[in-house]
Every structure is written in structure tokens, then in C-alpha cells.
Amino acid sequence: MNPVTLKTVDGAPRTITSEAMDELRASLRGALCLPGEPGYDQARTIWNAMIDRRPAFIVRASGANDVMRAVAFARMHGLRLAVRGGGHNIAGNAVCDDGLMLDLTPMKSVRVDPVRRTVRVEPGVTLAELDRETQAFGLAVPVGINSTTGVAGLTLGAGFGWTSRALGLSIDNLISADVVTADGKLVEASAESDPDLFWAIRGGGGNFGVVTSFKFKLHRVGPEVLSGLIIHPIAQARELLHEYRRITAGAPDELAVWFVMRKAPPLPFLPAEWHGKEILAFAACYTGDLEKGKQAMTALRALGKPIADVIAPHPFIAWQAILDPLLAPGMRNYWKSHSFTTLSDGAIDTLIEYARKLPSPDCEVAFAQLGGAINKVAANATAYPHRDLQYVVNIHTRWGNPADDATCIAWARALFDALTPHATGGVYVNFMPEDDEKRVRTGAYGANYERLARFKAKDAPENLFRVNQNIRPGA
Ligand SMILES: Cc1cc2nc3c(=O)[nH]c(=O)nc-3n(C[C@H](O)[C@H](O)[C@H](O)COP(=O)(O)OP(=O)(O)OC[C@H]3O[C@@H](n4cnc5c(N)ncnc54)[C@H](O)[C@@H]3O)c2cc1C
């Protein structure tokens, strides 16, 4: 193998000798890919087409050995190290230019223990793959709403979806994780073993090590959940969102109602005259008994005069993937996000104003309902601090043509600015784009940042894990 020239973390050029590269390649069970070699482009291509980065080489890990080797190699040579789980992160932190990319996607094992109701998950697993295995036993872990997302990055940031108001965040269901730390060693992090590391990885992203295995608690869910969409004309949005605020304030924890404002896609149950028109869509899911779900959704379903109401029992696996067609990889995406403890009249008016001037047919304002079990955990019990929220908005800007970059990004930023007076100032770390760095300390971590920074100074003082929403080692 030829020597490889790349850049160190400080941007200085460095040449890695052919002997060192050969030795690394020979030590791996998985593959080492250079530019142009099979697997290189596949590994560096991620969900957001805005990100087009070229690592100097990629280790496609088959197991903990490969992860330990890659981490030790990056540290020894002072390399920039990017870690890929599912490759969904909007900021593109799964991949870096000129450094070492550690691709975990080949690590796909999922092992359910139906007796103890636990599941062990490797970091290349997607939400769909996890659900498929756990639902074979009528069980589930709370995860997100797009089934091609990676379990790893989602969990390390916190992880919420349809079942989280009933069952908590993904991190609230994490029992332990195997972590390769900056010194290249594998440790188990749990409440009993390395509790500081366990605290830090539950929300602290990939800042503290590379997780090679997650162990989660499982819950009985499905096989069917009462769930579906209710579509309204946007002209009714103001009255409907005032009612939404009232209904969600009194909702049982089992019920989650999100809404999306966008141009209507050509859904088979929507009359053709509505395709491409602006709509408000409620998306609701009841995690529990189907009959109780019907009662819990009565008020929501009685609102206004919907264009369509397709609430019905759906297989949980199908519901978990219901929005996938609108969120497929390969488009250009830019997100901005705000968090809310209440939904003010001003926020409602602002959301509607901007939903009426969407810059592309694929852009949407996506509004998630949180609260419930998520807020029964103390704000300092895990690194994720936002335990008082009721809602999160994701300004989900999405388009195909690079010529539209500036217009679409400007729309997202303008809506974000207009919503700022109505929001908490906090932000979910998993929804932050690459230019949101200044929000990491106060916005993403708030009062938990100091403890995270202190722990990093002890655990990873050289900040090896820096291609992420970065927590800097601090005294
Ligand atoms: C369409 C879409 C829908 C989404 N919906 C939701 C939702 O409903 N709920 C929700 O909570 N989030 C949601 N998200 C956000 C999602 O949680 C983040 O994008 C998350 O970072 C994705 O994880 P990943 O493993 O796929 O991403 P990656 O880009 O691979 O990784 C994300 C970050 O985690 C780090 N990382 C990944 N794996 C490891 C590992 N094993 N060890 C250490 N660090 C690691 C990476 O280095 C990177 O910094 C959504 C994202 C998308 C694109």
C-alpha cells in the first residue's frame, strides 16, 4: 500500500508511511478503503446531500477490534476522526475531510432477550432493523420517526419518537453501552460501571468515545398501534392549532400528536385537487390499548372539517416508517430547531405565516409533542438537560437544486429568528446544523455543560472525538 498524505487535527499536512497503513489494514477484520476503492464512496455518502466530504481513508469496522485499532491509530497520528453510525446527522458529522472516517454501518447485530426484555444493538443498526427484531417478540425501544435513522447517533443525542411520551427517551431506556474511549480501550458504561461515562453518553453525543454496543430495556408495544394522519387545509390552521394546544396540554402520556405544515404530497388517500397545496397534517399515535386510543383521539378527530382522516390501527413497524417516503436520503437539507414549554399565540401565527411561503415543495415545518415520561426524569440525571419541554419545532428545509441553497437556507433562518422570542433558547443537539456551534454550550447542554467539559478534560483531554457538536475539555 502507498503512503497516505492527509491533515492532522491542527490542519498540518502529515504523511502516514506505507508500513503504518499496511499494519493497520492487516490488523482489521473489516475493510480499509482509500479514495477510488470499492466501498469508499458508499461509506462517505450520507443522508444530507449538502455534505460532500472526502476522508483520507475509511475503516469499515466489523467489530470492537476494528474500532479500537482505528481510535488508537487516529490518536497516535494526530488525525481528525469522524464516526459514522446511520449517517443521518444533518450537520454531516459522520464524515470529515482529509482525516480517518470510522464507518460502523457493517456492525448490524441485534440480539433480543425476550425473557429479560432487553436488546443488544450494534452501532450500524437502523431504527427499522431494530424494530423488526424487537417486534418479532411484541417489544420495542422508544426511538425516532424515520426508520432509516441510525440507532447510535439518535441514542447518543437523546432519541425521541412516537412512543417517548409513554416510555421515555431512548437514553432513558439505555441499560449499558460498550464504549471505546480515547485511549483505545473498551469499557462498559452503566449505572454501576463507569457511571460518569454513562451519564455523559446519554445526551453528550459522540464526544466521549465510540459505542460498539448498546443494551436497552424493552417494552410491550403493538403489534398494532392506533395511529395515522388527519389532513386539514392550511386556511384552518390558526383555529386548529389553538385547539391542538388545548388538546395536547391535557393528553394522556400514551398519546403523541405532532403536526406538519407543508405542501401536500400526492398521498393516495388525498383528493388530487389538494396535491401541492399547503396543508396542516396532524400525525397521532397512541402507545397502548386500541380502544383507549380511540377515546384519547376523539377530540382531535372532531376538529374542523378535515380533507382526510386515516387514523386506524396500523402495524407498529409500518407506522414507524410512515414518513420515510418524505424523508428519503439524497436531497439537500438544512434544519433549524427551537424548543418550547408552551405554544404561544405569536408562535402559532409565525409558524403559519412562514408555512404559507415555503421556498420549495419539500420544505416543512415539523412540530413534535414531547413531555409525558420524558419530563419525569431530572434535568441533571443524564447529559440531556431539556426535561421541561412540551414541544420542539424542526424547520425542515429540503430541496433538490443547489441553485436554491441560498433561498431555502434564508427561509429557515428567517423563521428561526421570528420564533426566537417564543422559544426557550434551548436546542436538541441532534437537530443542529453544522453552523450552530455557538448553541452547543448554553442551548444544547445548559447547566450540564460544565460537568460534561470537566469530564472530557479527564476522559479525553486531547479532544480526539471532535467531529460532532463539540464539548471542549474544560477545567
Ligand atoms: C429524516 C430524519 C428524521 C429524524 N427524526 C428524529 C426523531 O424522530 N427523533 C430524534 O430523536 N431524532 C431524529 N432525527 C435526528 C437524529 O437523531 C440525528 O440525525 C442522529 O444524529 C442520527 O444518528 P445516525 O447514527 O444516523 O447519524 P450519524 O450521522 O452517523 O451520527 C451522528 C453523530 O453521532 C456520532 N456517532 C454515531 N455513531 C456513533 C457511535 N457508535 N459512537 C460514537 N459516536 C457516534 C457521529 O460521529 C455523529 O457525530 C432525525 C434525523 C433525520 C435525518
What would your notes on this structure say?
- This protein is of the alpha+beta class and 475 residues long.
- Helix content is 27%, strand content 24%.
- The chain has 15 helices and 21 strands.
- It has helices spanning 18-27, 40-44, 64-77, 127-135, 151-157, 164-167, 195-201, 237-249, 290-296, 298-301, 316-320, 345-355, 405-419, 440-445, 449-459, and strands at residues 4-7, 13-16, 31-33, 57-60, 81-84, 100-103, 110-113, 118-121, 139-140, 174-180, 186-190, 210-217, 219-220, 224-233, 255-263, 278-286, 308-309, 312-315, 332-340, 364-369, 391-399.
- Helix 8 (237-249) packs across helix 12 and helix 12 (345-355) runs antiparallel to helix 13 (405-419).
- The two termini are 42 Å apart.
- Bound molecules: flavin-adenine dinucleotide.
- Flavin-adenine dinucleotide (FAD) binds next to strand 5, helix 5 and strand 12.
The tally of strands reads 21
Helix content, binned percent = 25-40%
Which descriptor suits the 3D outline? Answer: globular
Measured on Cα atoms, how large is the radius of gyration? 22 Å
Query: How many DSSP helices?
Result: 15
Query: What is the SS-derived class?
Result: alpha+beta
**Quaternary structure:** single chain
N→C terminal distance: 42 Å
Overall pLDDT metric: 97
Bound compounds, each kind once, are:
flavin-adenine dinucleotide
The unreliable regions are: none
As a percent range, the share of strand residues is: 15-25%
Largest sheet: 8 strands, antiparallel
